[in-house]
Amino acid sequence: MAVDTGNTKWVVACATDDIDEEDVLRFDHEGASYAVYRLAKGFHASDGWCTHEQAHLADGFVVNGEIECPLHQGRFDIVSGKPLSPPVCVKLQTYPVRVDGHNVLIGLPATAVTDVAKDAS
Q1: What percent of the chain has pLDDT over 90?
Q2: Residues spanned by the domain of 74
């Protein structure tokens, strides 16, 4: 399910109880892959693939607000996406997250032409 609000499309990624605290879950949507995290202070989301090489961050480890890539152990700050240790040096794209009831939603950039607009033409 997705809801467009302005420039953001809110997509249900998972249920709140699908992720334990200090853990990560893979979420695929429309050909893209994301990582959804649960920290003590809430939920967060980022692109799913490490910016260094093609390893999915959902296969990595969450420790103290950081995600460690499973391939070469580079680490990113989960909240900001900032690279914290070599070999990663390119920031990880992060996305807004909100909780609606028991659902975790990721705010993704809305397409220029929405399905509603296509149907109206």
Answers
A1: 81
A2: 2-120
Q: What number is the average pLDDT over the span 14-34? A: 96
Count Cα neighbours of 112 within 13 Å in the Cβ-side half-sphere: 0
The residues near 117 (Cβ < 8 Å, ≥ 6 apart) are none
Beta pairing partners, 109: 8
Q: Are 76 and 65 in contact (CB under 8 A)?
A: no
**What does the pLDDT look like over 104-121, one tens digit per residue?**
999 998 863 344 333 333
Query: Which CATH number fits the domain that encloses residue 82?
Result: 2.102.10.10
Check residue 115 and report its DSSP letter: H
Q: What is the pLDDT of residue 92?
A: 96
Task: Quote the number of domains for the chain.
Answer: 1
